[in-house]
Every structure is written in structure tokens, then in C-alpha cells.
Protein: Carboxylic ester hydrolase
Amino acid sequence: MKSTSIIFLFLFILQLSHQTTSEDVEPELTLSSGSIRGTSVDFRGVKVYQFLGIPFAEPPLNELRFQKPVPKKPWNGVLSVNKWGSACMQPVFPGFNTELHLSEDCLILNVFTTDAAFQDKQNGKKNSLRPVMVWIHGGGFNFGSANTASQYDGTPITGLKDVIIVSINYRLSSLGFLHLPEAGVPGNMGLWDQQLALKWVKDNIEHFGGDPNRVTIFGESAGSMSVSAHIVSPHSKGLFKNAIIQSGSIYDLKRWAQPELAKNFLNKIGCESNDYKLCLSNYQFGQASEGLTFWPTVDGEFLPHHPEELVANHGVDPNINVLLGTVGNEGAFELLLKDLVTFHPLNPVNLTIPHAKYIIGKLFGKKLIDFYSERYLASLSADDSDAIRLAVAQALGDTILACPTYALGRDLIANGVPNVYGYVQTQKPSQAVLLVSNQAKWMANVASHADDIPMVFGHPFTKLDKFNNEDVVLSFLMIDIWTKFARDGKPPQISHREWLPWNLSDSTPYPSMVLNSNKIGLIETKSVEFCIKNWPFPLDKPYNMDFETGVYAKMEEDHDEL
Ligand SMILES: *[C@@H]1O[C@H](CO)[C@@H](O)[C@H](O)[C@H]1NC(C)=O
Ligand SMILES: *[C@@H]1O[C@H](CO)[C@@H](O)[C@H](O)[C@H]1NC(C)=O
Structure:
């Protein structure tokens, strides 16, 4: 279908749309752990049932704190699950995540299903189970929640496509990722939480009308890294059939590892004795977590080896199907967070090539200035400040997000997982997850990190005044692709263009579908091939996570360093 006719179709649908409203019917069902009562909403004439905040694990409190999760014990009576629940503990920043209600008792998940799926199941109708999609949220393993209603409401996808959406919480920051074996803290607790939620889905989703044998896990950023962790971990095998990796993989963990992290953490919480257990049981979240960034580790169990080795040793289930991709310029958003002076949304500093090199040295180490300059700065004109700024962003985004994603795909097909499909989203939504991304003039025309979220979660269908027709077209297209992939294990044809898997025997080994309402059916290969050719980047030290504000000004002080 041509994009113009898609636009007309959606103008028409938009006119028919009405607000999501609550109705009286309260869906009830009985799981092996107990009964629950959800709520019902209308989405464009489709009745969608929401079950919000179902506990899948015992609250990770007291002796369960800093431990792997344990399954939820059965309860009596009917549990009301009709309100968005808490987020797991995380550092709080005004204007960023203050709207979340935080609690350590946060191991809950949400299920969205249609009345039709629910009734078919209740009536025992054969072969009627719907595909299931489990969302793992992002936030750098230190932030975020499945219960961010403004971003991750599963209602539009479920309402439009009659699939089951599940979104899960997992522990974050120190509580989710502290690795301190000498105190019995295994590390990766947050990944074990996700895995227990996936087991819950396998065991329970049929009650909602979902097919336990057609589970797709999908996630963005740290959620996408988590998806790839489940792909490589021997402990998550068989819990899902398909995986969608949106901007990030668990590759290159060495780059993120901070060997002194646990020690710094113990220092910060004033743990001077060797009685770690006592220190940890007295620890109140918030007193020390700010400023420390926790991350998955090669713990010897969930990740028995580095992810690259697990793939290379054919440790991955060859029958899974993978859809992976990135968003145009992943790093722009990151730089904005890192240095609000140099990359100020409205009045950024004018960048020259020497400034760009200086910043690259700060980010990746001085030894790599030439490596990055050759690849990212060589063709730029010296006075095109915005192009230089975007090139620095591209270098960062490729290093930490895009290239690890594509390198994982490359290694999967080289090691016996044949069904890997690629995409690149180049269209920026009218309302990004972080509003400042729309306000920043220098990134006005580039899609950046997290710009896939409004599209995949159908924000243009619920926030009509914030989005235009092109947004509607792309969102509908992406929801169509995502849900067909969940149904069939392969993405659909796009505008007569067959979507081929990556294939090393082909002259175009890494075809990736462009996701842009003005370029429907086009294939891109350049950015993927760039990553494949150059990865791994020769970094010999961790990437600098504490890039300071106002680097431009500091360059003058540090002049002799250049
Ligand atoms: C950046 O350069 C442009 C034109 O090259 C100029 O108009 C603008 O004032 C400069 N901005 C700053 C902050 O120096
Ligand atoms: C891979 O490419 C080769 C050469 O074009 C082709 O013969 C083969 O069918 C392709 N494999 C798949 C799975 O598409």
C-alpha cells in the first residue's frame, strides 16, 4: 500500500476514534496462585481487559532482599488488580521519574487481553489462543517501570491487533544488580526477576487466552539488553520463541564493568565491618545509590561466560526468531543527558572539529581519537557545527547501543541461529519520550534513543493532539510488524518488498528495513555494515559514564592536553 493511501485510511480511523473509557464489567479469573479481578476499557470499539499489578514473586523483602526471587505463594479470596502498581526502587530526579510510586515490594506484572481472546478461552474454543508479547522496560538497569502508564500502556497494541501484552517489573539499581558473592548476593537479581516473570507467563497466560508456545519477548535499551541476556543465558531457554531487540545488546559487558563498584557501594553505606549481611539488611535505598550505576555481571550462573562466548560456543537455541534494530542516531539523546551545556537543546555551544576530538577523547580515551575521527569526522565541513555535534552523537550511540546490537545479530547468524531480521527507524515521533528531544533544535530531524517507544506502544492512537498523520502511519506500521512477527516468527512483506533474514551467503548479507513513513519498503545496509566491519571497537578502558557538563569550556583549561 502506498503511504498516501495509508494516511487516508488513518484520517478516517482517527475520526472514528473515541477516548478510552472504563466500563462496568470486571473480568475475573482463577490462576494456580489465586483469583484476580481486573478492569475493562473500550479501545475503538474493542473491549480490552487490563489486569494491573499481578504479583509473580514473593515481595523481595527481609531475608529475600538481594536474593533471587521466589514464586508468589497462593492467596485467598479475590485480588483486585485494576490499578497501575508501584515501580521498583530507583534514584529520583525531579521532572524525570517523580510521578512513579516507588516500593521494594514491586515484583508485579500487567496483562492486557481482549474480551474476544478471553471468551474464546473460557468457552474452550480450539486453536484460538493468541500470541503473547512480554515487554521488558528500559532505563539503564537503574530506572524505569512497567507501570509507567504514560509510555507502556499495552491497550492500543492489544486493542488493534488482538494479541496479549504482558509488561513486567524487575528490581533495579543496587537492589537488582549488586554483585557481592562473599555476602551471598548473587548479582543479576533483576534478570532473575524477569526470568521468573517469563516462567509465570508460560504457566499462566493460557487463562487469559494467550498461547504459552508463542511468547515473544521485546524490550528497549536496558530492556533490549535484557532480551539479549535471555537469548544467551542457559536458564531462560524454552521460555520464549521470538525476541525483539530494540536498541541495545548485552555484548561488551567488560566495557560497563566497574570492578570497584561493590566496594564503593559498601563504603558509601558506611559498611566498615565485614558483617556484610548486617550492613545490607540495614541499608535504606537512596542513601547511597545515587551516583552509582549498577549493571548485569558475568556471575557464573545466569551468565556463565561473557555473552560473546556463549554465542560463539553455540549456546543459543537455534529455533528462536530475532528481530533487531536501532533508531537513527542513538547517541544524541545520551549526549543531551551527559552534557547539557555543550549539547544544550536551544543554545548549544558551536562545535569545531578540535572540540569534537576533545570530547571523543573524554568519552573513549585519547588513544582512540584517531580511530573515531577517521570514521566519523573526516568528511565533515569544519563550520557545520550541527553536523559535527551529530557525528559525536553517532560515535557514542554506535559504541554503546547500535553496534553491539548489530554485532549480536552477526554472531547469531554465524553460529547457527538462522532467523535474524534487521530494521532501522529513521523517523522521529512528534512527541518523544523525553520532551527535550523534540525541543532540541540540533536534533530536530534525527530519530534518537527511545523514539521507537511512542511508535510501538501506539501513542499516536491515544494522544491524538500530540501526533500527526505521519506518526500514525509509522506507529500502525510498527505495531503491524511487531505483532505479525509475534504471530509468525517472521516480519511481513512491506509494500511488496519481502523482508529477508540476514544471510551470509547473500551479496547483501545484512538487509535492514527502513522504518519511516516516507520510505516504506526501502532497505538500508550501510549503518549495519559499518558496525559489522568495525566491531569490536578497540576500546581498552571502560567508556566514561561520568562525562561532565560543560566539556567545551574545560577544553580551554586543558589546552595542553590536546
Ligand atoms: C554559532 O554560530 C552561528 C553561525 O555560525 C552564530 O550565529 C551563533 O551565534 C553561534 N553561537 C554561539 C553560541 O556562539
Ligand atoms: C541465502 O542467500 C543465498 C544466496 O542468495 C540463497 O540461495 C539462500 O536461499 C538464502 N537463504 C535464505 C535462508 O534466505
Q: What stands out?
A: The chain has 21 helices and 15 strands. The chain has two domains: 37-317, 326-534.
